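Homework help board

Subject: predicted structure for assignment chain

Our instructor gave us this sequence and asked us to write out the predicted structure in token form, then describe one feature. I got the tokens but I'm not sure how to describe them. Can anyone check?
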Amino acid sequence: MRMIAAATAMAMAVAATPLAAIAAQPLPVRFSDRPMGFDGAWLGMSLAQWRAIPPPPQARSRCQAAAGGAASCDYDTRYGTVVLPAAYDLAGAYLARDPHYLFRSGALAEIRFRTSIDAYDPVTAMLTRRFGPATRLVRSQGPTPYGFIQHKVVATWTRPDGVVTLTDPSGRPDQMEIRLARR
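My token output:
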């Protein structure tokens, strides 16, 4: 009985914790605000500088040519013969999945990654702390191929050096995408 009372008290304390207090906790992945970037990579850095950043654990970097002379880079993680996209810790219980880095004219022009739609509140709070309030917020809804209505949010933070866009959900109904791009 004492165990049930303790578990109930703990659950009530967690439920009573305001979102702002949760969002204020330090997070393992950092968005840098000067210059704009993500976990050590910043917009405008060279490909050589990006390659010098230590990859996520057990991951290796790979780059391939993209349209218009650009280079598209990411990380993969090998587990024996299985190769998976890399992931970073993000907002505590969530992962920044499959980060991609696009280089144009030798400089990092775009960073994008996906995470769970459940990470919307902590990621939005983290972006707001770094870049201020969103400069644009668009809410919409539409039918899915499965016959139900899906709500969508696109939040944008615009700064002189770049734009951050959060799209929830992205192309997958269970994932949102975060994109940082040079202006």
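Reply (TA_rk): Your tokens look well-formed. For the description, you could write something like this. Residues 1-30 have pLDDT under 50 and may be disordered. That's the kind of observation they're looking for.
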